[in-house]
C-alpha cells in the first residue's frame, strides 16, 4: 500500500485509529507522563512542578531513519552520571530497538520543546523515566501500526522485536528502517492506546549489560567537553576577577599586558554587587590568540582593587560567629512537644551536647568552567558545559540585549558538575567578550585557581545538638540549632536564614521516634557566593546528626546500630508535613512518604554485609551512618585503620541504597562509588578558608582531592531491589551525606577520638 493511500474503511488498523481518535473527541486535557491530568488541577509535584514541565512527545525525542538508525534526543546534561546512556536506553527498550543501532543527539536549550532541562537535584531519571518510556512505546505503536496497515492485519497481531516488526502468524517481518517513512506520516496515537512493556519484556531497563553511549569516545579522546570547542577565527580569554566577593576594580595599567605576544585586546567588565545571581563578578579580561598568551597577559596586568564590604572576611573569626549563634535561642523551624522545658528539667548527668563544624567547600570539577560564544547577524551561539541550558540561554540573552529566541545554547559534555555548572556566569562572561570582539568567537577558560577562588561555594556551618536522656539512655528531647549562610543570599538581598528547602535536607525532617524535637535557625550573613553542591545541606546536617547519634549510643553504652534502629522506631510511613517539611524535594508526599521501614532496612543490610560487630585488631574500627536525601535511603559502614603515624587507611566501605527500581544498575553503582570517593575527599581534606576576604587556597596542592593511594581498597555497593511500579528515588547525590559521619564514627571506634570539625586533616597525626 502506498503511504499516500488512505487505509480501506474495513482495515482493522484504520478501525483501531478511528476508535481511538473518537474516544478523545471534545476533551481538553493536559498530558503528563503518569497519565492524563485535568487542566484544573492546582497542585503540581515532581517534573510537572519544574519550569517547562515534562514533555513526552515521541516526535520531539525520537526518529527512525530509512537505514534503520534510531536517533534519540537527550535533554539533560552529561557530567559523568551516564544520563546520555540511561534516558535513551529507556526509550530504546520500549521501542524494541537494537542498542547497536541507536544514536544519541544532545538537545540544545529549548524549554518549550523539551521541557525542563535542569540537570540537578538527582531528578533526571526520576522525572523523565516514565516520559521516555512513553516516547519509546508511542514510536513502537506507530511502527507496528504502519506494518499492520501494509499487511492489512490487526495491529494486535504484530509486534516490534529487536529492531523489526514481525507478524508471527505469517512469518513476515519488516525492519524499522523499511517502516520509518510510513510510520512518520501516521497520526500520533492517543495516550489511551499506549501500553508499556511488562518487566519480563524489557531487555535494557534494570540490566547491567548496556554499553555506555560515550564510553569509547571518552576513552579515546573523541568527545567534546566545554573546554574542547574550536571555531574558525576564535580568540581565547581569561579574566582577572576581584579577589574579594563584592569588590570592584579601582585601576588597571594595561601597558605590560598589551606587549605580551599574542594578546589582542584587554576588556574591562562591570561587576554585579550582591546578590550576584548568575551574573559575572566583573574584572579585567585578556583576549589573545591562545589561552597561554591570555594567561601571561593577565599576569602582566597591574591591578588595584576596592575590596568592598567583605574585605575583612576571615573564616576563622566567622566560625566563632557561627558558634555564638548556635549557643543562643533562635526561632524554631520545627517545634514538636515541649523540648525546651524537657531539656531544662533534665539533670545535668542526663544531658549531652555537641557542636559540629563544616567549612566552605569548592566543587573542584575536573573540567573548570569553560564557554565559547559567537555573535553574528544579531544572533548568539553558545557552546558550554552547563547543567542549566535554559538559564544559560536567558542570561546570555539578557546580557547581550537579545531576545530569548536569538540565542542558541549547545550543551557539551561536562567534566564534572556537582551543581557548579548550574550557574552559567561563565557563559555570560564569554558572551560579553564576544560582543567586545565585534561578535568574533571567544572561548573563555577558567583556570583551576579561578575555579577555587571564585566558586559558588558550599556554605560553611556550625550545628549544635542537645539531648536529654531517660534512664535507658534514650532521648526524651532533641534540640538542633543549625547556623549557615543561605543559598538564597545569592538571589535575594539581605537573606540571612536557611530556606525551607535547605532545612528540609536532613535537619527539620529528622524522623526519630522522640516525643520532643525542636530545630532552631539563627540568622547569619553571607560573605561569599553560595551555590548548590552535591547533596547540598544534607552534608552538614547529616554529619552532625549521625555523629551525635553515635555519641548518644556511646553515652548509653549501647551498640550504635542497635541504638540507631531504636531511635528510628518501628517501620512506618511518615507524612513529611508531620516533620514540618513542606518541601520533600518537590515530590508528592503521598507517593514519597518518609518510610522508616526502608531506612531500617538499609541500615540492617549495610551492617550485615560489612560484618558489623566483628572483632577488629587495635587501631581499626567500623563506623555507621544513614541518610534520607533526594527521596532515597542510604546507609554506609566504613572500616578505618589508623597507622602509627596517625594516617587514615580505609580498607573497606559498604553502602546500601534503596532508590526504588534501578534503571541502569551499573551507573547506579558508579554513582555510589563516586559519591563515596567525593565524600571521603571532602571529609579528610576539603576546606576553603578566607583571610582578608580572599580565598587562601589556589590549586590542588592546598585544596587536595582524594588520590588513588588514599581511596578505599574496596567499595561494596548493595542495592535494594525495586519494582517498576515503585516511585523512583534520586541516585547522584544521596550516597554523599552518610560518608563523613560514618568515617568519623569509625575513627572514634578505632581510636577513641571524636572528630567534630571537618576536615579531619592532621587531627590524628602523632605529635613529636
TrEMBL record:
Range of residues in the leader sequence: none
Domain Aldehyde oxidase/xanthine dehydrogenase a/b hammerhead: 220-309
Pfam families named among the record's database cross-references: MoCoBD_1, MoCoBD_2
PANTHER family reported in the protein's UniProt record: ALDEHYDE DEHYDROGENASE (PTHR47495), BLR6219 PROTEIN (PTHR47495:SF3)
Protein name in UniProt: Xanthine dehydrogenase family protein molybdopterin-binding subunit
Organism the protein comes from: Janthinobacterium rivuli
High-level lineage: Bacteria, Pseudomonadati, Pseudomonadota, Betaproteobacteria, Burkholderiales
